[in-house]
Amino acid sequence: MAKRTISHLMIIIGAALIVIAVLLPTFLVPRLKVIPLDTVSTTVTEVREGALLDSVALAKGEPVEPRKNDPRCEAEGENPDLPVHCFINDEVPLKSSRHVRTEEPSDEERVTLEAGTVIMREDREEPRNLINATVDRITLDRTNAFPVDEPISSISGATPGQEGADEPVQFTRPGIQYQFPFNAQKKSYPYYDAIGLDLFEIDFIAEEEQDGETVYKYSMTVPPQNLYENTRAHATRDGRELTEADKSSLASLRLKFPAENWGLEGDEDVEMDRYYTTTRTVRVEPTTGMIVNGTEEIFQFYARDEAEAKEMVTEEGRKKEAEERNRTALDFSGQWSEETKKNQLAKAKDSKSALTTAGTIAPWILGIIGLILVLLGIRMHRRS
Fold it and tell me: Which of 29, 85, 174, 237 sees the fewest Cβ atoms within 10 Å?
């Protein structure tokens, strides 16, 4: 009688394990394939030499250190009218840092990520080392990693304390940005560029290896974007009025100087807008969609119009500007540090391991144990 009872229990438990094994990939894995509500990450680039228009030097009319012995930058009088070239330092050690964390609103279906990004110079102490800072809030569907279809995303680069600085434009965000979808595909994805404030395609390039893990390489080149026009259009969407913070942000994106100050011929004043282009390359762990390596070649510069901007981003145009530096606002190639790449890949491997265990290893183990218990139970039942 005891053997018969044990055999029944073995059959029941074995059958239950088989059912669980079948259901695990169907019900548990989809619940694991969501962006965590406790997402926190910090990515830092290597320190690399770049070029920068020093706004403080420009305001004071004092040439930057590398230009002080340049004949074009010899001061005459108390307030010399020097060329823009004199305020562009092409020997600045630069690095970028981004901290991403979860904020509200976040729940079972969506998660809000707040990304604070700064570009800093390493040759100055805080706070004089800060070049640029932005706070980007984006609310994503936790399952597909795309923004929700609601006007609740925002991007702010305003100086705290200015009127309107705490009330950035809220809008419906298109495209991916900080996370690729789970089971990323070898195809192009729509990618939102938070500097150019527009949507572009990021293309699959190749399959590679990073520390023994298969990763997908994606790359995109953003064509020249007029930052003044794009920023103004973004700030005034839906009839919104410009705030003092908006006006302050726009001030450096449109400058007017005599032609010779821009390295041009003539005596008339020439107004130029700041343009931006970048080549962005990322490596993605495809199972989790996590970005595990990133490179950005950022180039911001001044041009009179779109046609001139397109000429300046050609290979010949970039070479000429690198030699003369009359229009550069920022020229910086940011590559994630080795420690950052290692940390991000470790997180991706942990997440991938959990998915593999729940979707493959655990079902096989439970299924085999369940089948063995059922067969043993049947055999014991017959003998009893």
Answer: 237
φ/ψ (deg, to 5) at 345: -70, -35
Nearest C-alpha neighbor of 323 from the set 333, 334, 312, 307: 312
Q: What is the DSSP letter of 161?
A: T
What is the b/e burial string over 256-288, where b = at least 16 CB atoms within 10 angstroms of the residue's CB? ebeeebbeeeeeeebebbbbbbbebbbbbbbbb
Cα distance from N-terminal residue to C-terminal residue, the chain? 8
Question: 107-143 pLDDT, tens per residue?
Answer: 989 999 999 999 999 998 888 899 999 999 999 999 9
Pairing of strands 269-285, 328-335: unpaired
- pLDDT, the chain, mean: 87
Tokens of 338: 């080795």
Tell me the mean pLDDT in the region 11-35: 62
d(CA 286, CA 214) in angstroms, rounded, equals 8
- List the domain boundaries for the chain: 1-383
pLDDT in tens, 198-226: 999 999 999 999 999 999 999 999 999 99
The answer to whether the bond into 105 is cis (omega within 30° of 0) is yes
Residue 192 one-letter amino acid: Y
Query: Lowest-confidence range among 236-245, 314-323, 374-383?
Result: 374-383
For 44, residues 6+ apart whose C-beta sits below 8 A from its C-beta are: 95, 96, 97, 98, 336, 337, 339, 340
| CA–CA gap between residue 330 and residue 278 (Å, rounded) | 11
CA distances 219 to 187, 373, 384, Å, are: 11, 52, 68
Q: Is 64 helix (H, G, I), strand (E, B) or coil?
A: coil
Q: Tell me the per-residue pLDDT of 299-333, one tens digit each, with 9 for 90 and over.
A: 999 999 999 999 999 999 999 999 999 999 999 99
Report the C-alpha gap between 100 and 121 in whole angstroms: 21
